[in-house]
Design brief:
Layout (H helix, E strand, L loop, with lengths): L3 E2 L12 H13 L14 E4 L4 H15 L8 E7 L8 E3 L4 E4 L2 E4 L2 H8 L4 E3 L14 H7 L4 E7 L4 H10 L6 E6 L4 E3 L1 H16 L12 H14 L2 E9 H4 L6 E10 L7
Parallel strand pairs: 1-5, 2-9, 3-8, 3-9, 4-7
Antiparallel strand pairs: 2-12, 4-8, 5-6, 10-12, 11-12
Helix pairs in contact: 1-2, 5-7
């Protein structure tokens, strides 16, 4: 019998009913803060936030509006984000065969996952996935923009950038594969401070400079992508930058959200 990882935050972070969830995701995509550029050339990787949709959904929608340009070519999504609930060394894969949301079931690409399980920094650790929201909240966006795909979900714990970069490199593939990093930015600053901090973080990401503690909760995953981006000659672009004070929360204690896209050098997408 198939083992399916059931939703942990449906009805909390996002709507628990399929039709309402689809409508909300489609509205975020349609309301993207900026329009895809680069002649419609799809990004190889994105960074998208992972808070409750009422707070971060509009910013995530911008990132996914760009990723949607990848269209039917995409068959596999490498999904990385921080482990909020379990302290783990390295990166945690799941023993499940699929992850479920109210929009349906997304199979795990077991052959791809097995390739990275052969690396010393990756192991099966279901405790890192049972309650984790940061990967789950990305799935409905992916289910709306892609018709048929598999996922390799990896929760990132105490891992060095080179360890994360090695994992992503192992799964890089061609146009059939995209990378999604799940991360919020600054946490619980006043609005003005958060704007300044998150602008500096965005400048670092665009320059492919490593992030430091406090800049992003998913910095371990981001730093792994940035290391590989430097090696492969990718370019990074900020396409949306807001915080909870801009969307649905008060301005005395906000969380920052950014949407970023990464392109391979022209002609090297295949």
């Amino acid at each position: 019998m198939s083992v399916i990882r059931r939703p942990a935050v449906a009805g909390q972070f996002y709507p628990g009913e399929s039709q309402g969830l689809r409508r909300q995701v489609e509205a975020y995509l349609a309301g993207a803060a900026s329009a895809p550029k680069n002649g419609g050339r799809p990004p190889k990787a994105i960074i998208a936030p992972h808070a409750g949709y009422v707070y971060s959904g509009p910013i995530a929608g911008t990132a996914y509006a760009y990723l949607a340009a990848a269209g039917p070519a995409v068959r596999r999504v490498i999904l990385l984000g921080p482990s909020h609930w379990a302290h783990i060394p390295g990166l945690a894969a799941s023993s499940a065969e699929a992850f479920a949301t109210p929009l349906g079931v997304v199979p795990i690409d077991r052959p791809a996952q097995d390739r990275v399980l052969a690396l010393g920094q990756v192991r099966i650790a279901d405790e890192a996935h049972v309650r984790e929201h940061c990967l789950e909240v990305q799935l409905p966006f992916l289910q709306v923009i892609f018709d048929d795909f598999t996922v390799v979900p990896l929760a990132v714990g105490a891992a060095r950038p080179d360890q994360v970069a090695e994992v992503i490199e192992k799964l890089w593939g061609g146009e059939e594969t995209v990378i999604v990093i799940s991360s919020d930015l600054s946490h619980y600053q006043d609005y003005r401070t958060a704007v300044a901090l998150d602008r500096a973080t965005s400048e670092a990401i665009e320059a492919l400079r490593p992030l430091t503690e406090g800049q992003a909760c998913g910095r371990q995953a981001i730093n792994g992508l940035l290391q590989l981006a430097r090696q492969r000659g990718l370019t990074a672009q900020t396409v949306d930058l807001r915080n909870s004070g801009d969307t649905a929360g008060p301005r005395d204690r906000v969380v920052g959200y950014g949407a970023y896209i990464f392109h391979e050098p022209a002609g090297l997408e295949a």
